Amino acid sequence: MLQKQQTVKLWGFQMRQHGAFITKGNFMAYQAEYIWIDGAEPTPTLRSKTKIIDNNSKALPIWGFDGSSTNQATGEASDCILNPVFSCKDPIRGGKNILVMCEVLLASTGKPHPTNTRAACAAAAKKYSSEKMIYGIEQEYTMMRLNGRPLGFPELSGEPAPQGPYYCGVGAGRVMGRDIVEIHTEMCLEAGLHISGTNAEVMPGQWEFQIGPVDALRVSDELHVARWLLHRVAEDFDVVISLDAKPQQGDWNGAGCHTNFSTKDMRSNYKAIDDACQALGTRINEHVSNYGHDIESRLTGKHETAPYNKFSYGVSNRGASVRIPWQVARDKKGYAEDRRPNANMDPYIVTQLILETVCGNPKIIKTKKTAPKKPAKKKAKKK
C-alpha cells in the first residue's frame, strides 16, 4: 500500500492556507513554477524552478538558467533563456501561484534553442491553421518502485499473474497506485487542463490519462504540464513515473501515447479520414523514427501493436498502425488514432508530423471542395 511521506501534507488545505501569497511590508508576490524540457538523451526530461513575481507585474518575464547542467549549453557559454508560452493555476501551492510552461531560447540570439521543438510545431500550426486540426493524446505510463520494479510486481524478483484482470480493473490485487491517479486527476482539473479521462492499463502499475481535444500547441503544452504534475505527485509517494516504451520485458504490454487527430474535413467527411490514413502510410520511417526512443521494442506486431516498419490501418483494429474507431465508421465522420507514438514521445514533434503529413498531402489538397460559382444571370432577350 502506498504511503505518503510524513512531511507532505500538500493535498489538503494545510499547504494552501500558507501558500497563496508572499507578503513582506508593502511587497506582495506569488510563485511561478517555470517548467521546461531539457537536452537529455535519448529522451529529454522535464525541469523546473520557482520564480517569485511581483503581484503588480503585467506579464511573465523571461528567465535564465544554467544550460550546462541540462545538456543544453557548455560551461563557457552556459546561459539559456526560458520564454513563457503557457500558464495555468498551480494546484499544489494554490492561491495566485501558477505553473508556467516555457520554451528554451538561445541567450546569444534570442532564437529557438536546438532542443526547442515547440517553435517548429508553432510554424506548422500557423501554416495549416485553416485545417482546424485538433488532437486528443492518450498518455500511458508505468509506476515504478525506487528499485526499478513496477508496482504490482513482487518487490525483488518474479512476476504477478498474467495480463487480463488489470485493464480498467477494480479491487486489491488488480489495481495498484490509484491514490496517485486520483490526486493527479484532481490536480489537472484544478489547473484547468483539458484532461478528459483516466484508466488502469493492461500491465500492473500501468495507467493512462487523456488530454484534449485541442489544437497542436495547446495539447502539447498541457501534456507537458500534466506530466510534470504526475511526476510531482508521485515523488511524494517515493514512486518513479516511467515513460519507457517497454518498461518490463517479457509478455507484457509496452507503454504508448496514442494520438487521435481530426481536421475540420474529417469531422464531416469519411473520405477525408481514409485519405488521412493513406497519407500517414507514405512517410512511415519519418514518423516512426520521431515517435519516441526504443520504439522497436514496443511495436513488434504483438501486444496490440503493428510492426514498427510496416503500415496498416483499419476499423476497430488495435493491431493496426492507425485505428478508425467503430463509431467513426458508423457515423461516417470523426477522427483517427495513430497508435504508434511511444509514451516517451515529444508531443510537439508528433503533432507537427501528423499535421504536415495529413494536411500537406497533395491528394488531400487536390480533392478539397471549392464553393461552386453562382451561375451568371441570363440577360432577357429583347422582343
Characteristic key phrases:
single chain, 383 residues, alpha+beta, Ubiquitin-like (UB roll), Creatine Kinase, Chain A, domain 2, 8-stranded mixed β-sheet, 6-stranded mixed β-sheet, 14 strands
Question: If you had to describe this structure to a student in words, what would you say it looks like?
Answer:
The chain is an alpha+beta fold. It folds into two domains: 13-116, Glutamine synthetase, N-terminal domain (Ubiquitin-like (UB roll)); 123-365, Glutamine synthetase/guanido kinase, catalytic domain (Creatine Kinase, Chain A, domain 2). It is 25% helix and 24% strand. The protein has helices at residues 13-19, 118-127, 178-191, 216-235, 270-280, 284-288, 295-298, 326-331, 347-359, 362-366; strands at 22-24, 27-37, 46-54, 63-66, 79-89, 98-106, 134-144, 195-200, 206-214, 240-242, 257-262, 313-315, 322-324, 336-338. Strands 7, 8, 9, 10, 11, 12, 13 and 14 form an eight-stranded mixed β-sheet that branches. The radius of gyration is 23 Å and the shape is globular.
SSE blueprint and pairings:
Blueprint: H1 13-19, E1 22-24, E2 27-37, E3 46-54, E4 63-66, E5 79-89, E6 98-106, H2 118-127, E7 134-144, H3 178-191, E8 195-200, E9 206-214, H4 216-235, E10 240-242, E11 257-262, H5 270-280, H6 284-288, H7 295-298, E12 313-315, E13 322-324, H8 326-331, E14 336-338, H9 347-359, H10 362-366
Helix pairs in contact: 2-9, 3-4, 4-9, 5-9
